Amino acid sequence: MKTKRRRTISYIISALALLFTGAVVAATLILPGVLMKRESSSDYDAVTPVPAEYYSGPSDAVVKNASRQLTEEQRVNLIYGEWESSISPASEEDCSLSEYDVVTTFTYPVVSRYQKWYTWDATPYKAVDTTFQTYAAIFWKVTFTKFDGTEVHDYYITEGGTLLDETKIPFK
Fold first, then answer.
1. pTM passes above 0.90
2. Which residue has the higher pLDDT, 107 or 43?
């Protein structure tokens, strides 16, 4: 009887060990998939804003390439603020034309007949869209001063040669 009891106990222990081993193997195979599914579905439901340090804005090369694709009318709209934009002084690297080129290439009403009576000064400005900071339009403030200082005329002109209405430029 003792041997029969020992045999029954060993069968029960073997069955429990087999059952336990099967449960461990099943849990090892199934549990990672269940956890991964729960994690992946939780990511789809949550929308979090990107931290500011991750977005540095476009590079100068991206801005120059995107800005080249704008039409003259779109550049004027950007300068006038019809697109959300901010205006700041521009550097020489931003400009396609030099100060001399801007003054001598385009015609201005004041210098058409009396060009030698005036001295000039030109300052570049840049209008950049505030949404993505991808588009930029360069324009110049050209100031002509009569040789004796009695007359001063300011003109705003794009690098494409469009004279701008100074009352529409928002930074004034």
1. no
2. 107
